[in-house]
Design brief:
The chain has one domain. Helices cover about 70% and strands about 0% of the residues. It has 15 helices and no strands. The two termini are about 15 Å apart.
């Protein structure tokens, strides 16, 4: 069992805030006000590969397998479960999560690229793809892998700013272009997570903790308030602006620390299941909007209710799955 010192509760709090941010974006009618700060997914990608780099560096096969299990189990099982659940609702009650009866072809596409009916799993698809890619590069090139990652980061931005990425995928159906097209857009965030760990940026900045926090808060406000960079066209996350913002948010919370025991206990409870909440919040919304007007109208109260209900479902699911690997469905 992890103790409080082993768990970075400031980053757990960040995960909670990012998870709630995602729910707001999907379930709140004024989500467009957050358009300028689409930081949750980029920041999640930075966090994921920041912690994965040490596993790659040590060539820890056991931890690598555990990472793939943590990603693949929800990716596969949620896709199959939602396929069955949707069709059962359609057959029995003539309504469904996705407003139609799904075909086996839909399930096949969902499992291959992570986006057909359960659209948010494009992120899981890209996470799996980049994990495989970076693991292969790390094992093949060993110490030179950092240079390869940086070179690929530059190439990814060339593809974005030249609009080659947009040109290649724009003619494909939405479920294809939003999975494959976002690979080049999310790849730089994964590399930055690795670079932050490789250069020990967080450790070095802790020597100037207060000053760094002040500068980072200023940068984030500046990014949100002013058009600092030329915005380019893309799919979901083009350009360097989101990379700068995502890194600032990650560094900011990495520098924070909590000592109060009551606060740590509260964080321990409330910051669980952020992964599971991400996996199921859209389906909770699609089901409950039929019965509750404040959810259907996409109010802030409805969005908060979706988060809480998703948390409760994950809490119960975690208890039912005990210590089996099925707990990854809710964590």
């Amino acid at each position: 069992m992890k103790n409080n010192k082993q768990i970075n509760y400031s980053l757990e709090l960040l995960r909670l805030l990012l998870s709630f941010w995602v729910v707001i974006i999907h379930c709140y009618r004024y989500a467009f006000i957050f358009e300028k700060g689409k930081f949750p997914v980029p920041t999640f990608m930075i966090i994921s590969f920041y912690f994965y780099y040490n596993i790659l560096k040590k060539k820890n096969i056991i931890k690598i397998k555990q990472r793939f299990q943590r990603i693949l189990i929800p990716y596969i099982i949620w896709a199959i479960f939602l396929f069955i659940f949707n069709n059962a609702l359609f057959i029995l009650f003539r309504f469904s999560l996705y407003y139609k009866k799904l075909l086996l072809r839909d399930l096949e596409i969902q499992l291959i690229i992570g986006r057909k009916y359960h659209g948010i799993f494009y992120f899981q698809f890209i996470l799996i793809f980049l994990t495989i890619l970076m693991t292969i590069i790390s094992f093949l090139f060993n110490k030179s892998s950092i240079f390869i990652f940086q070179a690929l980061l530059i190439i990814a931005y060339i593809f974005q700013y030249s609009y080659l990425n947009l040109y290649i995928f724009k003619e494909y159906p939405e479920y294809i272009k939003h999975s494959l097209g976002n690979i080049f857009e999310l790849f730089p965030f994964a590399v930055m997570g690795i670079i932050l760990h490789h250069l020990e940026i967080i450790k070095k900045l802790k020597q100037f903790k207060c000053l760094t926090i002040i500068y980072i808060v200023f940068i984030i406000i500046f990014i949100l308030k002013y058009n600092v960079f030329v915005r380019i066209k893309g799919f979901f996350y083009p350009g360097v602006l989101l990379n700068l913002g995502g890194n600032c948010i990650f560094i900011l919370f990495s520098l924070l620390s909590f000592q109060n025991k009551k606060l740590l206990f509260l964080l321990k409870i409330t910051t669980k299941f952020t992964g599971g909440i991400y996996y199921i919040h859209n389906e909770c919304f699609n089901l409950l909007k039929r019965k509750f007007l404040f959810i259907k109208n996409k109010t802030i109260y409805g969005s908060t209710a979706i988060y809480i209900i998703s948390y409760i479902i994950c809490f119960l699911g975690d208890k039912l799955t005990c210590k089996t690997k099925f707990k990854f469905l809710f964590n």
